[in-house]
Specification:
Blueprint lengths: L2 E8 L2 E8 L2 E9 L9 E10 L4 E5 L6 E4 L11 E5 L10 E8 L8 E3 L4 E2 L3 E4 L3 E5 L6 H14 L5 E4 L8 H24 L4 E4 L4 H9 L6 E4 L2 H12 L9 E3 L6 H4 L3 H6 L4 E3 L5 E6 L3 E7 L9 H22 L4 E6 L6 H15 L6 E3 L7 E6 L7 H4 E3 L8 E3 L1 H17 L4 E7 H10 L3 H5 L6 E7 L7 E5 L12 E2 L2
Parallel strand pairs: 1-15, 12-13, 15-16, 19-20, 25-26
Antiparallel strand pairs: 1-2, 2-3, 4-5, 4-8, 4-14, 5-6, 7-12, 8-9, 10-11, 11-13, 17-18, 18-19, 20-22, 21-22, 23-24, 25-27, 26-28
Helix pairs in contact: 7-8
Length: about 500
């Protein structure tokens, strides 16, 4: 099996894709300038305490105040085997506190934060304020588990904790000791920075997306790592040299004229993530609907009629749907509550089998999932831990024409399409390209500076003209090349930057 990773910075975003045999398994995006807030530690101030909710709201300098549950304790480490306790904190309005983002903001909700700070390394997580000793459930050898826990206990001081990650099973004692000491120094420097920092300052920032992927996600048997952005290539190469299981020979700098995603046949798979409908191999299909509270998935037989009785046809479709749903929620970074409306089945054994198939398919997901039994209406609920933003939030945005009641293709999505078309145009030998597009989209693309890096880099010797067309919808545009001197253009044409 080919296991390939693709790294790029495009249209203001850092994009990382993992594919197996050319089929995308995971995709994540993060702002190239601002990065993500998940894992960041902020010096905040208590804006108000709500006893009835057992919660406080913290001003961290973000767009919205952050939500701090006061009775969570060490429960957020429950995905690891371990034990420990956390003392309750008494907070009052105006208190200055250090908090860490444990769930990013979503929709109208602010970020969720915790007082129980954690600093993540490759083999362990350091908990400077939490009396908790834990170990990954994926480490199953009892002798290795005992040895690792004993080693961690030896190094931890009163009141602090460690969690041994899966990678710790293959780490030497020297490596673990080095990481213990490094994370402690990192915490001390964070505390020192917080002493003089104003409220709203990020005194510690979690590593950006490419670094986190190199640290946490690259498993065994990686075939190649393709990197399109030149600056990012140098960084990935340096990180790869530090890993004995990877090495620089597997890192490839993609320098083709086409978009890297298009060259490797990934573009259409990325764009498909903006669609509600997912077709199954047998002609059936799924419909994904996102709300602020949950994601709802509807299973439909579509063109599939089966070869036997209706119950068998429905059962077969639901089994196939369960496997695809597990793949799609991982692919789309779907988090929170997911409700699946399977096609009605009469036999209890079939309902149980579909639930078990869903659990099995979700078991390979790195995010923690919990599946509830299917009810008599053939509706199944499951939860998936939200670790990063949903990819749909990158490719879609609230519709500007219906006051946000629906969704439309995002400006970023359109920028990706236009950029790919421009790369094709220049690859054909044109030095100038003319893009005709929706007038509102034109303004947004210029204001968002989506092509800033390309204009300063690979398009330095090229010219791109944008022509507004009030009759075009958001998703309509044309791109044509022209080497004429001089160019004949309407007065409304704008030179890109």
């Amino acid at each position: 099996m080919r296991k390939e990773w693709f790294f790029d910075r495009v249209c203001g975003e850092q994009i990382v894709i993992y594919a197996e045999d050319g089929k995308i398994v995971e995709i994540e995006g993060e702002s190239a300038d601002r990065g993500a807030v998940l894992g960041n530690i902020y010096k905040g101030k208590v804006a108000n305490v709500v006893p009835g909710m057992q919660a406080a709201f913290i001003n961290c300098g973000l767009e919205r105040n952050c939500y701090l549950p006061l009775d969570e304790g060490a429960s957020r480490f429950a995905s690891y085997d371990g034990s420990g306790s956390v003392s309750p904190r008494d907070l009052k309005e105006g208190d200055e506190v250090l908090v860490q983002v444990v769930k990013p903001p979503r929709g109208s909700k602010g970020a969720k934060v915790s007082l129980d700070l954690s600093l993540v390394g490759k083999t362990l997580i350091y908990l400077p304020r939490t009396d908790f000793l834990g170990i990954s459930r994926k480490i199953t050898d009892p002798d290795i588990r005992t040895a690792l826990l004993k080693e961690a206990e030896h190094h931890r001081a009163p009141g602090e904790g460690f969690i041994l990650r899966t990678a710790a099973a293959n780490a030497t004692r020297r490596h673990l000791k080095t990481e213990y000491e490094y994370l402690r120094r990192l915490y001390r420097s964070t505390i020192e920075a917080a002493q003089s920092a104003p409220v709203g300052t990020a005194v510690y920032r979690e590593a950006d997306l490419p670094f986190k992927v190199m640290r946490d996600s690259l498993g065994d048997g990686v075939t190649k790592l393709y990197v399109a952005n030149e600056d990012l290539y140098g960084r990935i190469l340096t990180l790869a040299r530090m890993r004995s299981d990877l090495g620089e020979k597997r890192v490839v700098h993609y320098t083709g004229q086409q978009s890297m995603y298009k060259h490797f046949g990934l573009s259409e798979q990325v764009y498909a993530l903006a669609q509600r409908m997912v077709r199954l191999a047998n002609g059936a299909y799924l419909i994904f609907d996102r709300t602020e509270a949950m994601t709802v998935i509807d299973v439909n037989t579509g063109k599939f009629t089966g070869e036997n009785d209706l119950e068998s046809t429905v059962f077969e479709t639901n089994l196939l749907a369960a496997r695809e749903i597990a793949r799609q929620v991982r692919l789309r970074n779907t988090g929170g509550i997911v409700a699946v409306d399977f096609i009605d089945m009469n036999e209890e054994g079939h309902r149980t089998a579909v639930t078990e198939e869903l659990e099995r398919a979700l078991s390979s997901d790195r995010s923690k999932c919990r599946v509830l039994p299917m009810n008599d209406l053939c509706v199944t609920l499951f939860t998936r831990k939200r670790t990063s933003r949903e990819i749909a939030s990158l490719l879609l945005q609230p519709c500007r024409r219906c006051d946000g009641r629906g969704e439309m293709l995002s400006d970023f999505y359109m920028a990706l399409l236009i950029r790919s078309a421009l790369l094709d145009c220049f690859a054909e030998g044109y030095n100038a390209a003319i893009v005709e597009l929706n007038d509102e989209l034109l303004r947004n693309l210029i204001a968002g500076r989506y092509f800033r890096a390309d204009v300063k880099g690979i398009w330095q010797e090229k010219r791109v003209y944008l022509i507004p067309n009030g009759a075009f919808a958001q998703e309509d545009f044309t791109v044509r090349g022209d080497n004429a001197e001089p160019l004949t253009l309407p007065d409304s044409a704008q030179l890109l930057f």
